[in-house]
From TrEMBL:
<protein>
    <submittedName>
        <fullName>Uncharacterized protein</fullName>
    </submittedName>
</protein>
């Protein structure tokens, strides 16, 4: 219960099997980004920052525990290059108009940039990248975000979009205005998508070619 109380009034940005990243607005108007480790609820890192400066955090997920580097987000492009290098700085500069907090997650050849709401803004695989201008591009689990088989994204109240995760080319668009998706899981055994809202659910099956 103590670990749950620590996250009260916080907003989850990213979560996987071992870590959760949350931000919180402090009483003095400052913001705080916290990284917790599941199991014992240990606070691994706490980063305080000013809202007007923003924050960019790079999380290197191949380290245990995660290696975290950070800097203010509102910097000139030249300064971003000095701090982050040309490749990362280019992505950060193009994505930072989306908010005041960005997480750059690096997992092997995969890179993803999330905003303060946990929405996907940039996906990169090796030298290929894709920017998402829609302010509600959602993914539903970390396995799908890092998958080499498919990347399934949800445009709220609009569609499910399936991308090739290596070329980042759009493969399938499935219109989905039926209800607001709250959770989505991939059933490997039956090759089905299980989609849920607060009250409803549906199954999405692949079409067999005749």
């Amino acid at each position: 219960m103590k670990s749950v109380d620590r996250l009260k009034w916080s907003h989850v940005v990213y979560v996987d099997d071992d870590y959760v990243y949350v931000w919180k607005v402090m009483e003095d108007g400052e913001y705080s980004l916290k990284c917790y480790k599941f199991g014992d609820g240990e606070l691994l890192q706490n980063i305080d920052y000013q809202g007007e400066e923003g924050l960019i955090c790079k999380i290197m997920m191949n380290y245990n525990p995660h290696k975290i580097e950070h800097s203010p987000l509102r910097m000139k492009k030249e300064k971003l290059v000095d701090v982050w290098g040309e490749k990362d700085a280019e992505m950060i500069a193009n994505a930072r108009g989306f908010g005041w907090l960005l997480l750059l997650l690096e997992n092997g050849d995969h890179i993803a940039i999330l905003d303060q709401d946990g929405h996907l803004r940039v996906k990169r695989y090796k030298d290929k990248d894709k920017y998402f201008d829609n302010f509600a591009t959602q993914f539903f689990n970390h396995e799908n975000l890092w998958s080499d088989k498919q990347l399934i994204l949800y445009q709220k109240y609009s569609s499910l979009n399936i991308y090739n995760p290596q070329t980042l080319q759009l493969q399938i668009t499935l219109p989905f205005p039926h209800f607001d998706i709250r959770d989505m899981q991939w059933n490997l055994q039956h090759s089905q998508l299980i989609i849920r809202s607060g009250k409803d659910y549906c199954l999405v099956n692949p079409m067999k070619k005749e």
